[in-house]
Queue: 2 jobs
Job 1
Amino acid sequence: MSFKYFENLWNLWYTELHNGTAGLTLKIKKVLYSGESKFQRIEVFDTYEYGKMLVLYGSIMFTERDEFIYHEMISHVPLFVHPSPEEVLVIGGGDGGTIKEVSRHPGVKRIKMVEIDQQVVEISKKFFPIMSKGFSDPRLNLIFGDGAEFVKTDTGKYEVIIIDSPDPIGPADVLFKEEFFSNAKKRLREGGILVAQTESPFYHPDIVKNTYSYLRKLFSNVLMYWSWIPAYPSAMWSFCFCSDKLHPLKNFREEKYMELGLETKYYNKGIHFGAFSLPTFAEKLI
Amino acid sequence: MSFKYFENLWNLWYTELHNGTAGLTLKIKKVLYSGESKFQRIEVFDTYEYGKMLVLYGSIMFTERDEFIYHEMISHVPLFVHPSPEEVLVIGGGDGGTIKEVSRHPGVKRIKMVEIDQQVVEISKKFFPIMSKGFSDPRLNLIFGDGAEFVKTDTGKYEVIIIDSPDPIGPADVLFKEEFFSNAKKRLREGGILVAQTESPFYHPDIVKNTYSYLRKLFSNVLMYWSWIPAYPSAMWSFCFCSDKLHPLKNFREEKYMELGLETKYYNKGIHFGAFSLPTFAEKLI
């Protein structure tokens, strides 16, 4: 039976609804994987428009076509602000996209990554060679475990901590709690930066509001930045830049940015600054 | 038969596909209008997530929930740059959203609007009172006709011209042609500004590329600015700022912006500047 014949008989569509009444729908070429880990349902689809994509817990984690936006924005913004980010801690991010970007910074000496679900890493290595190339970086120390537990007991100190969590449903719920942020902060070296993904200000105003109110109690500088990400709910996504000492605009290291000359597809100096200009409704929210 | 009963029997979904393999899907409460004008198919749906929306030619023109982004961005950016925008010409924009925003500028003395499809205006007045309130502005001169023909024969001169066209399929095709832009430019007073919506750099790279190459031949300053618009294809949308004399950042009139103190939901001073910072892939495209 040829694939053509197969396609003429029926169509497969992935539809991700947000609030049950609006969503993104993608035509699927092929189901590459569908299974369950100890923690969550995992699917890999090959789509016509967005290339291959990873779906965890019924949410698109990334697509090959647009992953660069999220991973560039969560990594390069803090790494081009901190004057010498040598030790970096990544909580979550099992698909490898974030460490792929972090590992492009030669000044980073050690990357520690704590991912709860080993199977996500294995799936990424199997189906997404570009995403997972950070896993072969010799600076990487990959730990399988609960990020919330890890920051409670770890004794390491980091210049930059990146919270690359999925949505606060399922296993990632604890990564949006005040206690977690407070423990994570204790792992920051003085003057360090914590960055977290903070959902969509358009679709998840309550999560955003709560998260920023927790973070404001902990850090002197708490600034939202945002990007457009087409495969995410509402396609507007936010990140939080937190530091007691550093300011993302005043402390942007232009020389380092020019010197490295990273080839990026979304992030650049203009975007670094522009991303902190919020639409009025998002400004009011936080 | 109660509405509840109706809903239990079946569901109505509007799905707008882009390139045939990816799209936005919205659950519909009610079909408010479905018909055809002399020019195009017209539908008005009441959706659960985005409120009421207008669909022309199978493309969402606006939804009540997100229309503010497009209309604020296409109007306030040029109007807060030109030092005295007294005469404004709007081509298209039959739904009234653009003139609703233009009419908030007290310095504007006359607004001429040329819309090809009278029925769009009537539908907007009937179903979208907030969108269509600009129609009652005494400064408005509403002309029903072909925008491309109008700029060929008109003898008026304008400080600001806004091209608020639908996608370049169907009746709006001519509004993306070099000849149209060239004729429109002749209607600009010296030092005037022309702004056009220029589709999605992510989904429509060829249209964007061609449009900017036409505009670059005509104007000294041709700058893309962009916004996130959730109900539009890919949710990333671009606009083009064109002028021979004025620069959108260097000539931003901060005093006027502060003095007017418009209550907006998306546009603000930070967004005015940030919107001109393009993602790298969009920068490369043009």
Job 2
Amino acid sequence: MERRAYIPQETARRLSLYLRMLRRLRQEKVRIVSSDQIRRFLNVSSVQFRKDLSYFGEFGKRGVGYDVELLAKEIGKILGTDVLHEIILVGVGRLGSALLEYPGFLEFNLKISEAFDRNTRKVGKVCGGVRIRHMRALRQVIKKRNLRIAVLSVPVEFAQEVAEELVSCGIKAILNFAPVNLVLEGDVFVSNADMASELESLVYKLKQKNNNYSLTKKRSIVI
Amino acid sequence: MERRAYIPQETARRLSLYLRMLRRLRQEKVRIVSSDQIRRFLNVSSVQFRKDLSYFGEFGKRGVGYDVELLAKEIGKILGTDVLHEIILVGVGRLGSALLEYPGFLEFNLKISEAFDRNTRKVGKVCGGVRIRHMRALRQVIKKRNLRIAVLSVPVEFAQEVAEELVSCGIKAILNFAPVNLVLEGDVFVSNADMASELESLVYKLKQKNNNYSLTKKRSIVI
């Protein structure tokens, strides 16, 4: 199948969304999905869907639909999640332990297989099937297991320093949960799982939609 | 100050990022910020920064920089987070309780002020300063307090059903942590805090950057 080398980031995002839908359909033993179902499930027009797929070949039969199995396989290949990726997690607080037990990662072929914390009381305990190691072992484990992706869930005041350490150990991609902009040298991808910004964005959308949107508690703050 | 009515979503996202930086600078008693500092802090070009600001007026003095205080205030007004927004949370599991205790929300003038769970053993307990209520009280509390924004952190199998209930109670925006695409009637904004998709996107970026990126464990899976 002919594939283009470059796929825009927005398309990649939607591919990820399609893949999730396809996996769900597969679980429900659905074999064929129509453009119309896709539109209803995901609020993505069939034109957009076809355009996104056009980056990596021709799929679907006019008037029939798309083969769920085949399409999931191809999108997985494109996104790189057709193989298992092992990930480390640093910072096993409440959020960190929730992430270790989060069932949604394996569905994407992502597995948090190592977890680290500074707190000696946590070290040695098992959370989500992973034994927590001390931060001292970080470098050795990353190097030995050739890990490249880290989830950062340490308190905000340590995030920058720990991120720098991760990069110095060879980590190339960080999903950062701390509410801070990490500034890192070298070719590292940082994605901010910034819950507050997500909420802020929702507030903004509500505000744009309806200027009469009545706030629960109008309070002027002097900033 | 003259303002345009419509601001693109991507601009709004960056404004949120600028605001976070400005708040941080303010904490550090910085009064003036230059375009160059902005570029270094956020990887946003000064051209982009000026373009984003141009949506709501003229800021900054050539050769001097931007007033941190003033700019933070204006961006807060635009985004709607110059006033406190109260939010409800549904599902006080590990993730839910981490969110209740997350310190990053208040910085954005966002406050989770009500929390709900089905589990009677959790009801009545206090987490992050919020007393957990039973789901039975959901409708009454939302109506009475005129709440519009909800954080959904229930197990994936209940997410759709609880989201529908929230909408029927008057909720207009949902930040969804469950790994599922919610399908909702009416004018509701849904934002997916989808940690697995974020990670998948990082995997994809690494893959694009380096096709030699060596996986920690190459395992073909039959899908």
